[in-house]
Amino acid sequence: DIVMTQSPDSLAVSLGERATINCKSSQSVLYSSNKKNYLAWYQQKPGQPPKLLIYWASTRESGVPDRFSGSGSGTDFTLTISSLQAEDVAVYYCQQFYGTPQLSFGGGTKVEIK
Amino acid sequence: QVQLVESGGDVVQPGRSLRLSCAASGFAFSSYGMHWVRQAPGKGLESVAIISKDGSNKYYTDSVKGRFTISRDNSKNTLYLQMNSLRLEDTALYYCAKDAYYSSGTYFDYWGQGTLVTVSP
Fold first, then answer.
1. Tens-place pLDDT, residues B51-96
2. What is the nearest CA distance from B120 to chain A, expressed in angstroms?
3. Measuring CA to CA, which residue among A112, A98, A103 is closest to residue A14?
4. Smallest Cα–Cα separation from B49: which of B30, B22, B68, B32?
5. Closest chain B C-alpha to A95 CA, distance in angstroms
């Protein structure tokens, strides 16, 4: 099974500042034949279901603000919020689908306002 | 617009059974794999079960194998999760989620609001 590890568990960032969340997989999620990383990012606000932000590690879902970006390859990935807004307070999860049908999520990173 | 509406959650005693449903609309239900994902109170997300678009392929996480059964009725645009021999650790909010691709196991582009299952003596 592919284990996903996120860091930090939580972070507090000032409004307008950058937030960086890390996600590490226990094995590479880069598929060599198509050069795609099988990784997605979700945002979950309190009392709401998760919302898809990023897939293929760096492709932003339609309607997601461009302050959200995903990067990385292989086993190390990053979700960056370039300028934190109040509405970005949430828990963020990474998810791998390389090991399908065994899908797995990271433990989550809580983002708060400093 | 895509809508996924779960129902069937309840408070049940250990060892009992429960059936969850997820009514789907706004997309070609029979063309996509579907998922159940759960979230224990205050915890993270866990993929529980996956079913292919025609129901021919199913996958379960180890902790529910032999106890839970995922199924679908494409004529009714409905996904199900039959949960037997429930345990305390099955207590969670259960989400129905749509696979983003025609295949069965990629990422989730739409989620329902969830239905709460509480297993308590």
1. 999 999 999 999 999 999 999 999 999 999 999 999 999 999 999 9
2. 22
3. A112
4. B68
5. 8
